[in-house]
Amino acid sequence: KWSSVNSPLFLPLIPPRAPGFTAVVLTYDRVESLFRVITEISKVPSLAKLLVVWNNQNKSPPEESLWPKVGVPLKVVRTKENKLSNRFFPYDEIETEAVLAIDDDIIMLTSDELQFGYEVWREFPDRLVGYPGRLHLWDHEMGKWKYESEWTNEVSMVLTGAAFYHKYFNYLYTYKMPGDIKNWVDAHMNCEDIAMNFLVANITGKAPIKVTPRKKFKCPECTAIDGLSLDQTHMVERSECINKFASVFGTMPLKVVEHRADPVLYKDDFPEKLKSFPNIGSL
Q1: Could you confirm whether the keyword Cell wall biogenesis/degradation appears in this record (predicted)?
Q2: Structural contact between residues 178 and 187, judged by C-beta atoms closer than 8 angstroms
Q3: Mean pLDDT for each consecutive 10-residue tract of the chain (283 residues)?
Q4: What integer pLDDT is reported at residue 151 of this predicted model?
Q5: For helices 192-204 and 168-175, what crossing angle results, to 10°?
Q6: Phi/psi class of residue 200: alpha, beta or left (left: φ > 0; alpha: ψ in -120 to 50)?
Q7: Cα 40 to Cα 278: distance, rounded to the nearest angstrom
Q8: 120 with 231: CB under 8 angstroms?
Q9: What is the spatial distance between Cα 139 and Cα 91, in angstroms, rounded to a whole number?
Q10: Neighbour-count burial of 232, counting CB atoms closer than 10 A to its CB (0-12 exposed, 13-18 middle, 19+ buried)
C-alpha cells in the first residue's frame, strides 16, 4: 500500500481534485469537550468526514445514539495502544488528500477560520497550515536549541493541535520517520507535533504557514489537570525534543518566517455580507 502512495511534493502546485478535508480528532476520555469540537467542526462547509481516534483502551467510546448529529460521515477508530503517534496513522478511512489534525479541546476556532485554513492549504498543499504558531531559538549560553511558546513576530512550527496537511505525511510519519523519533515520542507522550514539523520541513525545505491572528486556543474550562501541556516539565521536554530530533536528522530543518495568512478584507470596515470570512477571531 505504501509503495502506491504518490508524493504531493513534486506535482504541480494546484488545488487537489479531492473535495474537502477529513478532520482527525485524537481523544482519550474528554467526551464533553470532544462533542463540542465535533459540533463546531461540523459547521465547516468543506468538511467531508470526521474521524475520531479513540486512544483509551480501558474505556469504550460512548454509544452511537449519544454522539452529536452531523451532516457528514463520523467514524470512530479504536487504537490498540495509547500512543500519540496514533493521530498520524494513515487510516483507510481518510479518503481526502487534506487532513485537519485537531485536539479534543480546541473549541474556539470558528467555522470561518477553519474554512479559511483549508482554502490556504489548497494553495499550499505541501505545507503544514495551522493556527498555533511556535518558534525554535538557539540558546547561546547553553549552546543548544530551545522551544519558544511566547508570542513573537516569527514562527517556525505550527502545532498539529489544529493544522491542515496532506495525508501523504501520515505515511512518511508512520513508515519513514528517521531513527527512533517515533518510539521516543510514544515513550514520552510528547512532541509528536514537533516531529511532524521536522519531517515536513526536512522533506520540503519550506516553512509552515500560520493562518489567522488567533493565538489562544485552549478553552478556559479545559485548564484541568488532565491537560498534558500544562505540566512545566512538558515545556522543558519540548526543548529536549528539538535537540534530539535535530541530532537524529543531522541538521536543523525548521525554517523561521515572519508571515501569516489572513483573509484580505477581514479587518476592513466593509459590510459583513461582502466578506467571505466575516467571523475571524481576534488574538
Answers
A1: no
A2: no
A3: 62 65 94 94 96 94 92 95 95 94 91 93 93 92 90 92 95 94 93 96 94 72 50 81 96 94 75 71 65
A4: 82
A5: 110
A6: alpha
A7: 16
A8: no
A9: 39
A10: exposed
